Amino acid sequence: MTAANVVVGVDGSVVAMRALDKASAEADRRATGLEIVYAVPGFDEAGPVLASAVTRARHRYPALAVSTTAVVGDAAEAIVSRGRDAALTVVGTRDLPGFAGRLLGSVSLRVAARTQSPLLVVRGDHTAWHDSSGPGGDVLLGLEDDTDTDTAGYAFAEADRRAAPLRVVHAWTYRHLPPVGYAPVPTSHLQEDIVRRARTEEAVPGHVVTPLRETYPQVPVQTRTVRSGATHALLEATCGAAVIVVTAHRRPGLLGPQLGPVATALLHHSHCPVLLVPETPQGSLPVSPRD
Fold first, then answer.
1. What tens digit of pLDDT does each residue of 42-94 get?
2. Domain check: are 139 and 122 in the same one?
3. Using a CB cutoff of 8 Å and minimum separation of 24, what contacts does 260-264 make?
4. At 25, phi and psi to the nearest 5?
5. Same structural domain for residues 129 and 264?
6. Helix, strand, coil percent content, the chain, rounded in steps of 5
7. Residue-wise burial string across 98-137, b where 16 or more C-beta atoms lie within 10 A, e elsewhere
8. Together in a domain, 155 and 282
9. From CA 223, how far away is CA 104, in angstroms rounded?
């Protein structure tokens, strides 16, 4: 067993039980332990929920080492704290329209904006994801640019763990807005610039993927570059995928860090679970093949 566990947040809801099932499968796949975290107003409420969660996890994976943690306080803070050194943190989120949806999904969004470990988010309507260690759907990598090397490495490792193919999608758009007071660029120059940009963007997946093919020769890889908004392209690509892996780009907000718009849209609308890899210094995430 490795030192780092898989950590999952529960609250007794159906959504949390789906997240628990997924976390149990991920712990089994990684040959690590599972820590179940429940943040409550008082410890008296924690016992039955945690006991039920342990029973459920061990029923599916009898050999799984399961531990529990009850925390009095804020759920998001508790999950972020317990998941700081985790191999993976797993949370569930409801997907309801309007303000209610944003409110009910606030715990998972706050965790996504703050956690320093890879985070798997399972939406409440994700009922068809594959929780066995065998193949079932490909791993999808949403590649923003050629700096996403750590996330790409994690996606390769994830595909290797699942014995699944890896599908890489890189989306880009051309926005030409001349500075105020300057005349628009002539059409011929604009077209030439677009062609140059297209060539550069087409090369991004190969630049990122080629070194990792040598590390993971057993992982089948398909790459695709599309001229489209990233949100639309990635949401469409999630159909049929087992999981999508993207970088958790964050930006400052009035109430603390906020997740970027593409990742936020995926959490709300993806057709498969979303695995967020935190931004880290170049090369800091391990990308070695499975033992």
1. 666 788 899 999 999 999 999 999 999 999 888 999 999 999 999 999 999 87
2. no
3. 261/231, 262/142, 262/144, 262/230, 262/231, 262/234, 263/112, 264/109
4. -65, -40
5. no
6. 40, 25, 35
7. eeeeeebbebbbbbbbbbebbbbbbbbebeebbbeeeeeb
8. yes
9. 36
In percent, the amount of the chain with pLDDT more than 90 equals: 59
Does residue 79 share a domain with residue 4?
yes
Q: Are residues 17 and 101 in the same domain?
A: yes
Q: Which is nearest to 56 in space by CA: 21, 88, 31?
A: 21
Element (H, E) at 179: none
Any idea how long the chain is?
291
What is the 8-class DSSP label of residue 44? G
Q: Which residue has the tokens 């997924």?
A: 22
CB 18 within 8 A of CB 122: yes
Residue 153 and residue 104 share a domain = no
Q: How confident is the model at residue 97 (pLDDT cuts 50, 70, 90)?
A: very low
pLDDT tens digits along 177-230: 455 555 555 567 777 888 888 899 999 999 999 999 999 999 999 999 999 999
Region 13-24: mean pLDDT is 93
What does the pLDDT read at residue 139? 98
Torsion of CA 153, 159, 161, 164, to 10 degrees: -160
Same domain assignment for residues 227 and 109: no
Q: What is the pLDDT of residues 150-176, one digit of tens each?
A: 999 999 999 999 999 999 999 998 765
- Phi/psi for 118 (5° steps) reads -55, 140
pTM of the entire predicted model: 0.85
Helix (H, G, I), strand (E, B) or coil at 270: coil
Domain that holds residue 283: 134-291
Q: Are residues 139 and 266 in the same domain?
A: yes
